[in-house]
Write a structure and sequence with these properties.
The chain is 36% helix and 14% strand. It is of the alpha/beta class.
Length: 249
């Protein structure tokens, strides 16, 4: 019986098969209710956090979308939920801690937020999770990277394996890597969730030791079985041999 089937309807479910998750901090999810395309109900946020705890995570840094045209989030819409969700986890005896940052689209409004000091970062090195459009690279990427750095932030590119315009020419990965952009790999890519080309790109990045962080990109319980499946792949075992930053956060 899969972990997912054992988990449904239980407040806490052990993993019976021998498994120890070497990553104890989960980065990149959408668990603040009703502010982006992630979970919509408070109860589901708690359910996902319980699920992550059962998978061995001790901390979750959730990262709601921030987009100028769609999800106009900021500290005022994100941070008030952190205390509420942590209090509920403590009440339900779920041994996990929630923190929050954001996943910023590299768009015209992002630089204004940097200049205004409205950025939610994570970690002691002020990491900032950024994403690009899937159609084409952001034309202002270099400008954004410069703005982040002069303001003391460290840019982290979310799911680089999902951008097919990079995967089609891996030289672009090396250009970004040489420019000291950190890479966060999605767990779903390890099981081909986004497609075979994304799986191939994920394998390339792992084999070339070009992964700094891993994350679920979980948008709700609909991704639970996917996350569990990814944790049990040889590619996950391989990526965990790299000097990942997750557990330092």
């Amino acid at each position: 019986m899969s972990f997912w089937k054992r988990f449904i309807g239980k407040k806490q479910a052990p993993i019976n098969e021998p498994f120890v998750n070497p990553v104890t901090t989960e980065l990149h999810s959408h668990l603040i209710p009703a502010i982006d395309d992630g979970v919509h109900q408070w109860e589901e946020s708690i359910e996902v956090l319980r699920f992550f705890s059962a998978l061995g995570y001790q901390k979750v840094i959730t990262t709601p979308h921030v987009m100028a045209d769609f999800y106009k989030n900021g500290p005022d819409t994100i941070l008030p939920w952190v205390g509420k969700l942590n209090d509920e986890c403590a009440k339900q005896q779920i041994p996990i801690t929630l923190e929050a940052a954001a996943e910023y689209m590299v768009d015209d409004g992002f630089e204004q937020k940097i200049d205004a000091g409205q950025i939610l970062s994570f970690g002691t090195k002020k990491y900032v999770l950024i994403e690009m459009p899937f159609e084409a690279p952001a034309p202002n990427l270099k400008q954004i990277l410069f703005a982040l750095r002069i303001n003391g932030y460290t840019p982290v590119l979310a799911h680089p394996e999902r951008y097919l315009y990079y995967a089609a020419n891996v030289k672009h990965y090396h250009d970004l890597w040489d420019a000291e952009v950190l890479f966060q790999l999605n767990l779903g890519s390890l099981v081909g969730h986004y497609g075979p080309l994304q799986l191939k790109a994920a394998s390339y990045l792992i084999n070339n030791r070009m992964v700094n962080l891993v994350g679920s990109d979980c948008h709700g319980m609909r991704h639970a079985a996917l996350v569990e499946a990814a944790l049990r792949t040889p590619l996950y075992e391989q990526v965990c041999q790299l000097p990942l930053l997750n557990n330092s956060l």
